[in-house]
Structure formats: structure tokens, C-alpha cells
């Protein structure tokens, strides 16, 4: 049974009312966006926009853009799509992709908006393990905060208390039986392809 996470999310968002949601179209960001849409229904003063970054790393990148557009249209969330070109060099593809993503987020952020991302408990653990592997000191081993400074505004992570499994089963709008969700398209390498009907 689907559990509404909006109260927990609302607590993390307070007092911010203008939200830019990092939206990949994957499970985590779709659950987050859906919860924010539910929250907006309860509080119409909340404004939502989504941003999707097209890295061009996958042959399916165009399908992901179409998928995100379709969901955002269904949920009446304005979507900005950024096409980025990754730098070449020693950092590796993932590091360059992350840097390009966060630059796109910064470029899209309007005055008064905060960036909201779907990082969760499993991401927290992964970040810690990578820091340990790199030999980070105490500062490098600190956990991601639910709220941190970003581009003269804030970066909020309202799903940090959730596990990927909780998003995948039972607490996810995608796995909800009897909900208003319906399949709209399938994209390779993803189990989510839903939008609110």
C-alpha cells in the first residue's frame, strides 16, 4: 500500500515555497516529483518546476527526455531540458557528468527557488563508502545534509530518510495497487514508466 510521504517532505522543505526539482525520470526522482505534486495539491502556494539534464551518454537519452516531458505534462509541472556536452579529461565520465548536471541546475535556478534532489539513504551510504575508499578525513566523511548551500540558494534532499527499497516497494506511487497511476511508456533499463492518470 502506498504511504504518503508528503508530511516528511514538507518538513524538509519548510519554509521554501518555490522548488526546482532535479528530474532524471528514474524511480527516485519520479517518486519525489509525485510527492511534491501531492503536496502542491494540499498547498497551492507551492510552485514546482523540473529540470532534466540530457548528457548524451546513452542511446536512450532522447527517450528519457520524452519520458520526463510526458510525466511533467501529466502532472502540470513546467520542465526545462538542458543538453550538456561533457568535458574530457582525467576526472572520468561520472565526475564530468555530475559537474555538468550541477552547472545546469545552477543555470536553471530562478531567484527565490531552491533545488530539490532525490538523494536517499542508499546514496548516503554510497557516498560514505566512496569517501572511505578515497581516504577522506573527518570532513570528507560527513553525511549529506538535508539542506545545504547551493548557488546562493539552498539544495534540499527530502528523501534522505528513505531507502531505495522503500521507494521501490509500497512507499512508491509507481508500485501502488489501485492508485491513479498508469503505464504510459517503457524505456529500456527502467522499471518506471508511469504518470498520473
Automatic annotation (TrEMBL):
Keywords: ATP-binding, Ligase, Nucleotide-binding, tRNA processing. Its EC number is 6.3.4.19. The keyword Protein transport does not apply. GO terms for molecular function: ATP binding; tRNA(Ile)-lysidine synthase activity. InterPro entries: Rossmann-like_a/b/a_fold (IPR014729), TilS/TtcA_N (IPR011063), tRNA_Ile_lys_synt (IPR012094), tRNA_Ile_lys_synt_N (IPR012795). It comes from the Bacteria. It catalyses: cytidine(34) in tRNA(Ile2) + L-lysine + ATP = lysidine(34) in tRNA(Ile2) + AMP + diphosphate + H(+). Residues 18-168 form the tRNA(Ile)-lysidine/2-thiocytidine synthase N-terminal domain. The keyword NADP does not apply. GO terms for biological process: tRNA processing. This is tRNA(Ile)-lysidine synthetase. The gene is tilS_2.
Amino acid at each position: 500500500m502506498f504511504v504518503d510521504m508528503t508530511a516528511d517532505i514538507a518538513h524538509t522543505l519548510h519554509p521554501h515555497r518555490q522548488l526546482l526539482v532535479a528530474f532524471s525520470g528514474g524511480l527516485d526522482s519520479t517518486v519525489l516529483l509525485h510527492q511534491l505534486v501531492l503536496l502542491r495539491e494540499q498547498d497551492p502556494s507551492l510552485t514546482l518546476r523540473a529540470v532534466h539534464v540530457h548528457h548524451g551518454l546513452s542511446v536512450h537519452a532522447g527517450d528519457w527526455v520524452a519520458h520526463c516531458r510526458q510525466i511533467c505534462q501529466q502532472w502540470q509541472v513546467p520542465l526545462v531540458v538542458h543538453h550538456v556536452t561533457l568535458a574530457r579529461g582525467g576526472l572520468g565520465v561520472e565526475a564530468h557528468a555530475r559537474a555538468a548536471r550541477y552547472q545546469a541546475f545552477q543555470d536553471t535556478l530562478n531567484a527565490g527557488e531552491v533545488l530539490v534532489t532525490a538523494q536517499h539513504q542508499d546514496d548516503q551510504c554510497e557516498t560514505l563508502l566512496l569517501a572511505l575508499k578515497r581516504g577522506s578525513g573527518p570532513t570528507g566523511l560527513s553525511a549529506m545534509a538535508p539542506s545545504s548551500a547551493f548557488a546562493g540558494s539552498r539544495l534540499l534532499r527530502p528523501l534522505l530518510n528513505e531507502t531505495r527499497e522503500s521507494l521501490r516497494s509500497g512507499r512508491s506511487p509507481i508500485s501502488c495497487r489501485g492508485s491513479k497511476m498508469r503505464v504510459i511508456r517503457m524505456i529500456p533499463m527502467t522499471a518506471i514508466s508511469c504518470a498520473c492518470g
